[in-house]
Automatic annotation (TrEMBL):
GO process annotations (BP): cell division; cell wall organization
Domain Penicillin-binding protein transpeptidase stretches: 309-624
Name listed for the protein in its UniProt record: Cell division protein FtsI (Penicillin-binding protein 3)
UniProt organism field: Kutzneria kofuensis
Protein family per UniProt: Belongs to the transpeptidase family.
Lineage, highest ranks first: Bacteria, Bacillati, Actinomycetota, Actinomycetes, Pseudonocardiales
Keywords noted in UniProt: Cell cycle, Cell division, Membrane
Amino acid sequence: MPANRTAGGRPATRPRPVVRGGPAPRPASARKPRRGAPAGVGNHPKRIVLSRLLMVAVLVVAAVRLVQVQGVQADELSALAEQQRATLTVQQALRGQIVDRNGTQLAFSVETRSLSINPKWVKDDWAKEPDVYKNLKLGTSYEDYTQRLAEFIHAQLGDQAKTADLLAKIRDVGTTYQLLVRDADPVKTKPITEKYASITASARQQRVYPDGTVASNVVGYANWREDAKTPQGLIGLENSLDDTLKGTNGTTLVDTANGNNDLVLPGTIRDSKPAVPGSNVQLTLDADVQYQAQKMLDAYKTASGAADGSMVVMDAKTGEVYALAVTDSFNPNNYGDYKLDQLGNAAVSTPYEPGSVNKVVTAAGAIEYGIEQPDSVIDVAPSFKMADRTVTDAWGHGDVQMTFAGVIGKSSNIGTLEVAQKIGADRYVDLLTKFGLGQKTGIGLPGESPGLVPPRSQWSGSTFANLPIGQGLSMTLLQMAGMYQAIANDGLRVPPRIIKSVTKPDGTVVPEAKPDPVRVVSPQTAKTVRDMMRAVMQKDPKDSLQNGTGYPAAIPGYQLSGKTGTAQQPDPALGGGYSQTKYWITFAGILPADNPRLVVGIMLDKPKYGTQLGSSAAPLFHQIGTYLVQHFQIPMSPTASPVVTLQLP
């Protein structure tokens, strides 16, 4: 066996070449191990160990996270994924209508569209224009494209979207949102959104008031609320009946694609809740009567130089209000053109001192308590002194004798106070309460004032010298008309109402609950007072002493009852005294007196006192009364009112 082989025939060592003249080879034991290679059994570097530990840690964390995702958080993450692709869409509930007693629409809603645009998306649309445009004279510039876009919108919507205005918004690439037009016709907007992806149409409602100013002080105004996706009532019945009118929006859950809420994935519609429209409200108002009342009132305000005025027409038996008019009514279709102080309803919210129309309380009390009769003779002195107050009549006279009918018909302050003293303060206060003064009528209109009656405990010595002649207390026009409604209705006061019924979405009609009536005086007393107050309209061509203060209100062929009123307005400059130039002029009338159908109340604020129209509202009652007997086809009275003695010779 050769000396360099083992027993198995393998070489014992690999022969090394001999390098002549060079250094001897380094022993194997003196060489450094190669990087990354083991230096010896059980002797690994620390970084190798750390690397392996780090890898193990990463694997452990990944395993824990996998268990967490697939197990513990599976439901939560699934819900988050659902939220990312699920979209809740809202279907509008159409707001209910407001109609008059005959079904004439006073307010209703129509579905509209609001168009908006992202100007930055417009360039994307432009870039996608078909190649055919490159061969047309229209060109392919961005300006040409936006010009065509604006002109197309204008062609669809007309003057509602003017080209120049549209262009300014479309080319404003510094913004991501521009409102192009609101309350557009959905049919007309559809071709626009189909043609241009950069334009979005949002559903909304427009509240429409077809008769403009007619009954606007009653109906009020509703404005669209973007956050609630529904109109909201701001003033008037639109506000106080908002919950009744607005309905409930519907909702549907759908899946959408690519973050586009308008791109609904097929078959993903679920959890649908249909919209429930609002209820319709029917009022007691007659739109034709309301229109005439407003028209006549505005004209009389101008002719008399009054600052403003109001008028109410009421059913004598039921208390239903046919008209509740104020001067200078606003048009809710152009709501933004008016200031806040132009949107009120003075007939229910602004009390005033009534003047002599309040003498009906003394008239009713004197008859009810058997103190006087219409033909009772009363000695009327030139003046009446009570505590620190001296009262005179509107015309100068010496000692005269008047019938009680004459005291009311000629509106004698002195005669009224003499009779009121016989009634007494306590019984007088009780009558004021029964007539509804110092308390709201409960008609259901927002902002109603209760007026003011001084508490009995706070009366001074002169208080009872003011109240019977209509000063020192205040009432609204609606309260004033309610007092005369009680006399017209045989002494039974029915609180006025203006809501007739509510029709629910399912068609169920719910009549408005009738208010509880209040017995003020007996039926016989009411009839006697009614007959006695015919003297207010009396005109004796033979003797002017027998003329009532309201004879210009007379309507040929009809017996009328009523009362004129003139009240000085407080003047702050006089330290609580009354102005000699500023007045409230009032009138309350019953039509006809012999078979009452209607009650009319009128108030004029600061007319030019001393002029024919500025000193009395009787001519205005004649105008509206003449219309009312024709409109309601009220038969003439069988007989004329008898001429009675008002003042003895």
